[in-house]
Amino acid sequence: MAARALSVIFGFACLPAVYWLCYELFGSRAVGWIAVGLISVSPYQLLLSQGARQYSLFGLATLISTIALLRAMRKNDQLSWVICTLTFIYGLYSHLFFVFVAFGYCLYILSLGLKQVRSYLVPFIVSLSVAFVTFLPWIIVILTSLNEIQKKTQWVSNRNSNISILLRGLRLSLRNSFLNWNNSIPRIESYSSYLIFGLIVISLYFLIRFTPRKVWSLVVISIILTPLVLVTADLILGGGRSLQSRYLLPSLLFVQISVAYFLTKCIIFSFSTREKVFWRFAYLAMVFVGVISAIAIAKTPGWDYLEQGRTANALNVKMAPLINLANRPVVISEASHSFVLGLSHLVNKDVDFQVINDVEASEFSSYFNIPELAQRYEEVFIYLPDKKLISFLEKEQGAQLESVFDNKLYRLERPLL
Fold first, then answer.
1. How many angstroms separate the CA atoms of 312 and 310, rounded?
2. How many domains does the chain fold into?
């Protein structure tokens, strides 16, 4: 609870921020309420608001900084630009990918033309420059830790992908912002992804067609820029950065705002009663499928915003009951702390752990002795081992291992004592 409380608070704070942003963009309270309705039941926003990471903070930073920028452009006074600067700083410190959001602001200013932005171009440049200067300590850390960063992010840079996989991933990310039933009804979810994609395309056309450039250019740039950068990086460098929906959070927020604008205008400006009823029903249907998604999330232990089924909670929920059936067990693991700590909260109090981290294979023997552990405990489990640890246990320690869960949890069968 302590680790996730802030995520929940920031997730709730996104709702009034979305309302305020819609009012700044469109001058319409109705659009704001429709957007709040969509985002409040958005499956992916709900998952992000439960995660013990900074992504709900990142989403809130994107919304608040955009509000501050629009307000500063409208008022063009010193206080407004100071506030804008502070929100830029807040955004940069919330997530490194806020850099894409900031770059999008630059493109947005340029898209308006020099004549329109001349009065606030200098304050904007100063504001953004000050923000990056305050972020300089972290820039230095990043530049001096590139090898470590590359090592920690190797899992995403080594992921197999091609243009087909990337486009499919983007389509699923868009769908999961509105509907996600954890593949309980695959056919409906598959068809709905195309319907939602079509709705988004129509809403963007509607936005460009019926709003001034000052409005639609901000929304369109915010939607396109981050996915474009990440997909380009994946195609050139390889990997699956764009397949991580959380990296696309700013884009997904503006997608929902665009759809909210489209639905609001269709409801308000429909020519007949039947059309009004249809579009109201369409909106209520989207809210309904979001509520069903929320119920599915609440009833599915281990489902989080990574949506990979291989996270600590998702695996531990399945493994812990197997360990709890054992008498006097010990768990041996070299997994990261998040996995082991998560498991420790789900197993019985009499379960012991023998944990090592960042240890070379040549040093395994100095940390544990399998025959000795087999004498002290009735059951010896090996949790999330890699190939080196399995090889060490079988060849050097004489252990015979039985997989009890998907080659991720093993039980010691017959050690050579």
1. 7
2. 2
